Amino acid sequence: MNNNDPLRVAVAGLGAIGLEVARRIDAGDLPGIALVAVSARDRTRAERRLSDFRAPPQVLSLDGLAAVADIVVECAPAAVFLEIAESVIAQGRTLVPLSVGVLLNHPELIGRLEKTGARIMVPTGALLGLDAVRAVAEGKVDSIRLTTRKPPAGLKGAPWLALNGIDIDAITEPTRIFSGNAREAARGFPANVNVAAALALAGIGPERTEVEIWADPTVTRNTHRVTVEADAARLTMTIEGIPSPDNPATGRITALSVIATLRRLTAPMVVGT
After folding, report:
1. Which fold, 130-249?
2. Whose CA is closest to 256, among 241, 238, 271, 273?
3. Quick one: 214 exposed, middle or buried, by C-beta within 10 A (0-12, 13-18, 19+)?
4. ∠234-239-245 over CA atoms, to 5°?
5. Are 231 and 188 a contacting pair, CB within 8 Å?
6. Which is the CATH superfamily of the domain at 7-125+253-264?
7. 183, 105 in Cβ contact below 8 A?
8. Distance from C-alpha of 192 to C-alpha of 213, rounded to nearest angstrom
9. What mean pLDDT do residues 8-35 have?
10. So what's the pLDDT on residue 193?
11. Fewer CB within 10 Å, N- or C-terminus of the chain?
């Protein structure tokens, strides 16, 4: 590959996020980036979804993506994250993951990056202010706290609910269903609050990052409030993300965050830390 060749991108998972990312690359919205492959559980359905693309990519197995791409964007269920990540890291590629919570429980993946030359680039996703969190983390940070409020439907299927006998459909008023650290949140809500993992990785780690999760039938947007106390600044940030119509567990902004992350890789000017 020479400097004039486009960066080859593969997308693992063609759900609400993966399909949007794939469409934007195929449409030519990201100069210097080419879509070369995708992976999906249902190959026939994937090929149908790709039929109107200008240049339909290959449909490959999960472990086949890193062989043809420089960058693999992971938009798949958390259950297959390790299969994707191990292949990408072993072949020295760049992984852009959305199932960030899995990383907190598998630090050995991060430990192998330098050995293979691979990289992991975590998008901001449905959160905000990770540039400021990274900046203050270069100094002394006393505390970082995340409070998440989601419509109950956006929390369905989380293992924490089953383990604690929580009937999410029976909640009729704002209810705190979790309080703990980011590592615990990632285990209990692997598909629902990856923002907690991203915040922990940007800041002071999963044990010290405090997390509250509320099931709130009075809200229509996925709301995340971050408060940081540090020697350099006090930060208070709130984002109200519109849930994806295809997957209420995630927000529409998540796909846009992935696209912005990819754009930075070839942009002649980059703004933000």
Report:
1. Dihydrodipicolinate Reductase; domain 2 (3.30.360)
2. 241
3. buried
4. 165
5. no
6. NAD(P)-binding Rossmann-like Domain (3.40.50.720)
7. yes
8. 10
9. 96
10. 85
11. N
Rounded CA-CA distance 126/120 in Å is: 18
Domain ranges of the chain: 7-125+253-264, 130-249
Burial class (CB in 10 A: 0-12, 13-18, 19+), 185: buried
Give me 162's structure tokens.
């089953």
Distance from chain centroid for Cα 192:
10
What pLDDT does residue 4 have? 77
- The structure tokens 């994937």 sit at 46
The residue behind tokens 């949140």 is 185
7-125+253-264 against 130-249: fold identical: no
Tokens 């002649």 sit at which residue?
268
71-111 tens-digit pLDDT: 999 999 989 999 999 999 999 999 999 999 999 889 899 99
Task: List the catalytic residues.
Answer: 224
